[in-house]
Specification:
Shape: elongated
Number of domains: 2
Number of strands: 20
Mean pLDDT: 97
Structural class: alpha+beta
CATH architecture of the largest domain: 3-Layer(bba) Sandwich
Strand order of the largest sheet: 17-16-13-14-15-12-18
Number of helices: 14
CATH topology of the largest domain: FAD/NAD(P)-binding domain
Bound molecules: flavin-adenine dinucleotide
Largest sheet: 7 strands, antiparallel
Strand content: 15-25%
Radius of gyration: 25 Å
CATH superfamily of the largest domain: FAD/NAD(P)-binding domain
Distance between the termini: 6 Å
Length: 405
């Protein structure tokens, strides 16, 4: 390559910044990162509030299965940038990581800001330019000129290659508005509808329950839905239920609701006890105690768990030890619909892999590459989301390099 090539990266999130990192290492490439927001990496910073779970240390062959039906599509990029590579890369940036007891990988400081600061500093030192408050509107008059809204005016940028890393459709206030969907569909690209992933669900609670228990954590429970069975925690909200355990099953539940109109999940409120163990306690004479006091005395059942049992059983049913024991082990909850995509941790759907070549370049748009959450894949929480964003960002950067050569 003799001339200077201009590469536009649109989207200053995990995927876009990783593409910038790759491209900025080549001398005759000028990288400009555009973003609609005033500053870069807002979602990374938000993820930092939970300690920035950057990846997962489980066996790599298990790790890749977390991407479900899209495992094969993502595999080449994950193989080329594994969780171990990601840890090394962070280490090279001066960010030490550790593996938590659950296998999740975090920066030692459990914060995103030092990592983002160091990364942006390195990118700037490598010559990457940032054009913030530039909202991409598409291409000017069907040419290859990129059109941006810069608040007071419109700006045009001519690039030799473009990397789109515009994110999914959740948490729009952090920048990922999903506006790009219509722009790419107009270009004839197949973009699967963006849907909530790792999301909560609506449940119709009675007023009393809502007033007393919304915001309460539901600890040490297990959830069963279809072939999903896992222990964990959830959180009751005014509108329904959310939290780690619910997110883990959310893709399955969302798809079931979309076909069947609702989904009944079962919560085990005593995962460490059997029905017979519970029955042995519930069959003891109650004397003059109220049901509530009896349950508290025998099983330490109170607060939100007791509230849930009262939510699903009538007063008469509460007098049946068998029914109470069965309900404590498999409390049915009718989930009506997913919470809005804006509240979800991530989104499913996006650009179909059929639209992209192996280097993540759009088959219908030569020189335009795509990466990150805007591609059609989803994964549970646990560091899988960021890892795939970094891996596809890197692949798109390398793809653009190859294309420019
Ligand atoms: C609360 C929360 C916690 C999370 N915690 C974790 C976690 O611990 N571990 C994990 O793996 N994942 C986590 N995630 C998910 C993870 O943060 C995302 O999957 C990932 O950051 C997405 O990266 P991305 O680069 O694809 O998109 P984004 O980070 O969303 O970046 C897209 C960028 O594109 C810009 N953009 C969009 N449209 C335009 C436009 N038209 N013009 C110009 N710019 C535009 C946006 O402003 C944004 O900066 C969390 C998400 C949330 C919401």
């Amino acid at each position: 390559m003799s001339n200077i090539h201009n590469v536009a990266i649109i989207g200053a999130g995990a995927a876009g910044l990783m593409a910038a990192e790759i491209l900025s290492q080549t001398k005759n490439i000028q990288v400009t990162v555009f973003d609609a927001m005033p500053s870069a990496g807002r979602k990374i910073l938000m993820a930092g509030k939970g300690g920035l779970n950057i990846s997962h240390a489980e066996n790599f062959s298990t790790f890749v299965t977390r991407y479900g039906s899209q495992t094969n599509n993502l595999l080449p990029y994950l193989n080329a940038f594994t969780p171990t590579d990601l840890r090394e890369w962070l280490n090279n940036l001066g960010i030490e990581t550790f593996v938590g007891s659950s296998g999740r990988i975090f920066p030692k400081e459990m914060k995103a800001a030092p990592f983002l600061r160091a990364w942006l500093h390195r990118l700037r030192s490598n010559g990457v330019q940032f054009s913030m408050r530039h909202r991409w509107l598409g291409w000017q008059n069907d040419s290859n000129q990129l059109l941006f809204d810069t608040q007071n005016s419109h700006e045009i940028f001519c690039a030799d290659a473009v990397i789109l890393a515009l994110g999914g459709g959740s948490w729009a206030k952090l920048g990922s508005t999903g506006e790009w969907v219509s722009i790419l569909r107009e270009k004839g690209m197949n973009v699967e509808m963006l849907q909530p992933s790792n999301c909560g669900f609506n449940v119709t609670w009675r007023d009393y329950f809502k007033q007393h228990f919304s915001g309460e954590p539901l600890k040490n429970i297990s959830l069963t839905f279809d072939d999903f069975h896992k222990k964990g925690e959830a959180m009751l909200t005014e509108n329904g239920i959310e939290g780690g355990l619910i997110y883990a099953a959310s893709a399955k539940i969302r798809d079931h609701i979309s076909t069947n109109g609702n989904a009944i999940i079962h919560l085990d409120l005593f995962p460490d006890k059997t029905v017979s163990e519970l029955l042995a306690k519930l069959n003891k004479p109650r004397g003059k105690l109220s049901v509530a006091k009896f349950l508290r005395n025998q099983l330490k059942l109170d607060g939100v768990k007791a509230g849930l049992v009262r939510e699903v059983l009538s007063i008469e049913e509460l007098n049946s030890p068998e029914l109470v024991a069965q309900t404590l082990k498999a409390l049915p909850l009718n989930l009506l619909s997913p919470r809005p995509i804006d509240e979800a941790i991530s989104s499913a759907g996006g650009i179909s892999f059929d639209e992209l070549n192996d280097n993540l370049m759009c088959k219908k748009l030569a020189g335009v590459f795509c990466a990150g959450e805007m591609l059609d894949w989803e994964a549970p929480t646990g560091g899988y989301l960021l890892t795939a964003c970094f891996a596809t960002g890197r692949a798109a950067g390398l793809g653009a390099l190859k294309w420019l050569k």
